[in-house]
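User: Okay, second chain of the day. Same drill as before: sequence in, structure tokens out.
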Amino acid sequence: MVDLWAGHVDADRSRPWQRDTIVNVYSTTKGMGALCAHMLVDRGLLDLDAPVATYWPEFAQNGKEAIPVRWLLSHRAGLPAVERSLPLDAAFDWETMTAAVAAQKPWWEPGTQHGYHAFTFSWLVGEVVRRVGGKSIGAFFRDEVATPLGLNAHIGIGPEFDARTADIIPTPPLPEGQVDPMAHVWENPDSMEGKAFNNPPMRRRTVNTREWRAAELVAANGHTDARSLARMYALLANGGELDGVRLLRSETIERARVEQSNGIDAVIGSQSRFGLGFMLPSPMRRFSDNPAALGHSGMGGSLGFGDPEARLGVGYAMNQMLTSVPGGDRRWWSMLGAIYGALGLPFTAPDPA
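Assistant: Same drill. Structure tokens below.
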């Protein structure tokens, strides 16, 4: 195992990053939540092909009666956003948000295309796990994943964690001539794409607040270190067992990494590729030369993935946000080249041009 940390937890660079520092990893959290869902599948409690309404009857509104669970995980449900405007604090009210997504009419015919459920994934997948598993997604992850594996990883943290939680540092202005690939989202706040990322509205400073850290938003607010991400994905890359702890059968993992969605994403407007809850390597998110690796990246640059052929788990967590370029975050490439090179395996860094 290689375990490295460096830098500072604050923008003033007054406090060094420590071994037990944790940080918000945005959408990299989705992989943590997907693991919880697949554990319920593995136990025979959750059927990926059953209608969501089987487990969540209130979901059967506005033409969503037949949407299967697998479409929530593969971003094919047509529910990337809530259309009616929601107040700022709605994101922290579980009942308000689950009721809103249950009432939402799909933005497209479910199953006909895919579009990133950037924020609604929190309540769509989180509520199914809660209904089937009998506890909130944060409690399920803590009890069933983090504690058995000894992870410093959390979906929802109390104030006792604040002293060792790094502040998120906003993305700096783009260099002259570089185009933000998400510009169409920020420039059209009332569109489906705009609402997917900003309804309820999220202010830049929200992520460093106690309210954000306490919430259990499996789409966006996991707090962890890179070591824990790597360890979680090492389990997935090694047949579902690590250091004598088995969470999944190997066949469950194989099913999770079967491609479900590939092509132009209806929300982000560029190519994306998904299995069941996990990103798969693609030209826009190039984290492995193995097309069957599975993982998830997060806004600003975080990353966790497992490569079953290499039996490798990798985690990267940082607090300085950067705008991704085609292929992912530039900071990944030298790291991944060194990791795969040490194993005598290829890694082809993208050409962002």
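DSSP finds eleven helices and ten strands in the chain.

User: Thanks, on to the next one.
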